[in-house]
Amino acid sequence: MKLRKYFALTRAGIIESLHFKLGMFVMVIGNLLYLILVYFLWRSIYASAGGGSVNGMTFTDTLIYLVLATALFNFMEMYTVWEIGRNIQSGKIVLDLLKPMSYRRYLFWSYSGGFVTQFFATFLPTFIAVTVLTHGAVPLGINLLWFALSVVLAVMINYSIDFIVGTICLFTESIWGINIMKQVIVLLLSGATIPLAFFPDSLRKIVDCLPFQSIYNAPLTILLQADPTPAEVLPTVAVQLLWAVGLTVVSSLFWKCSLRQITVNGG
Amino acid sequence: MDEIIRINHITKEFRVPDRHEGLRGSIRDLFSRSYHTVHAVDDISISIAQGEIVGYLGPNGAGKSTTIKMMAGVLEPTSGEILVNGCVPYKNRTRNAQNIGVVFGQRSQLWWALPLVESFRLLKDIYQITDAQYDEMLALYRSLVDIEPLLHKPVRQMSLGQRTLSDILAAFLHDPKIVFLDEPTIGLDVSMKAKIRTLIHELNRRKNTTVILTTHDMGDVDALCRRIVIIDKGKMLYDNDIEHLKKFFGAYRTLKLRVKGDLSEQAKRIAAELPECSVSANENWISVLVNEDKQKVISVLSQLQKSYDIRDMQLEEISSEDVIKRIYEGGVV
């Protein structure tokens, strides 16, 4: 009964996103164009590097990594910051705050329907295509289960970061700059645009101490590992879990404190 | 009757940053940190009983929405205390939410792309309404309005009237103890307004729901509210029966005249002749508001008919609209 109200939101989200057929179509096309760009960019990088492997990754490795990262991005990006910002500016946030559940949960579950549709519309097709085209370069085994767990944690971390940034919008009342900055930082430092293996050592050390690499790098590394033993995977997952719990607490507290400051204009 | 809302001497202050004009001013604002305080709500006390419909009136920017947001728990008062259904709303916002329903005339809580019935199902799960309760409510709705054509229509395809109607139904769905209606009839046509008034009235009667209604349409007030509260500039001006208000202003009558010549020109002349009265004109009538304590209508009429060619006349009791206009414009209370 308790979970039912959340799943009801998921269900509505699925129905809602299925209504926008054209939007989904455009997303798939845009996704494809981006992948073509990535392909040619990295092909020329590898060509100029004299072929073979760069930083321990072959061209195929890099490409698989980046394609899956893009698919993962499409699936995980919830545009939470935009949504919070828009709701604040339009004043709709008042209505959301008056639902009998916390705003943080309400927003998350409202968008969870998007996860489901995006998973089937972009992630799964991309994953299957990559698996088929590379003739088994992606191992299919126990790693998939670990990957699933890792993605769940990644979603939690990603949402918490988004929610913190969204909360900042309460104070600035503007969205654009903050959101773009967040997107660039997250995508770069999480290894979604460039595999972390390409980072210089000193930068890599810093990145490892930040939560961002737990969003994309961690699940993708697990996915591309053939038959990992628990001992190999557990440290990565444990770090993710730590960040997930920590950031959830921080973002909830930050929101609670900030809400007292809220001044919803007009209406 | 049971008291459902108690407000004791609440105030709400906002700190608004001072803005300077022009490019230079904007640059200065980047560095300056001066604020001034706005008293949105200033020492208001109200007690509302279960099942009442209260008209909450005031000119734009009077602090109505701020008060409602405090009662709903979205804003915290600067001082004073509020109890809604026995608990402090801003401290128990999610619990309070279960007991209240809200309609803001200009925005919708419904899911834009979904048919109305999906929004209802969603609200049913969010508010954890039991199947029996939900079915009973829908049956009630069916008996009051023709909702069948609306149920399967996506909200974004609805007309404003249909959407407002749907929003009101959605706000009552979980059978809350209190419903706040913020300008529910804004922008609607006459027949839709009537429909919505009947609906609110019936829901209030059947479910004994307390309704707090803000509006600028005196038709709403006359049709629904026994009691009205008027505030302006954050201060309470009036809190009593609407009948009492009319009695209070009973000495006022409106004399409507049609005279020869251009009405607005003539109205200006009449205004100059009758400094005690307030005179206005539209394309059909010149209206003269007369305070009978000071000057009898008959004497005004006889004075006017000496110098004007009066074609037609009517005498009206003061409408609540006029009363409220006079209160807003300051003066009498």
- Shape summary of chain B: globular
Question: How much helix, percentage-wise, in residues of chain A?
Answer: over 70%
> Which CATH C-level class of the largest domain in chain B is it?
Alpha Beta
Biggest interface goes to: A-B, 29 and 33 residues
End-to-end separation of chain A: 34 Å
- Spatial arrangement of strands, main beta sheet of chain B: 5-6-7-3-8-9
Which percent range describes the beta-strand content of chain B? 25-35%
Describe the structure.
The complex is a heterodimer of chains A (267) and B (333). Chain A is mainly α. Chain A has 11 helices and no strands. The relative contact order of chain A is 0.13. Chain A has one domain (4-259). The model of chain A has no long low-confidence stretch (mean pLDDT 85). The two termini of chain A are 34 Å apart. With 333 residues, chain B is an alpha/beta fold. Chain B has 2 domains: 3-10 and 43-246, Rossmann fold (3-Layer(aba) Sandwich), CATH 3.40.50; 251-317, Alpha-Beta Plaits, CATH 3.30.70.920. Chain B has 13 helices and 13 strands. Chain B has helices at residues 22-31, 64-72, 93-97, 116-126, 131-144, 148-151, 160-172, 190-207, 218-224, 242-248, 263-273, 297-307, 320-328, and strands at 3-17, 35-49, 53-57, 79-84, 100-104, 178-182, 210-214, 227-232, 235-241, 252-259, 278-281, 286-291, 310-317. In chain B, helix 7 (160-172) runs parallel beside helix 8. Chain B is globular, with a radius of gyration of 24 Å. The mean pLDDT of chain B is 86. The chains are: A mainly alpha (267), B alpha/beta (333). The A-B interface holds A 1, 4-5, 7-9, 11-12, 15-16, 19-20, 90-92, 94-95, 97-102, 260, 262-264, 266-267 and B 14, 65, 69, 72-76, 93-95, 97-98, 100, 102, 104, 106-107, 109, 111-114, 118, 121-122, 124-128, 154, 182.
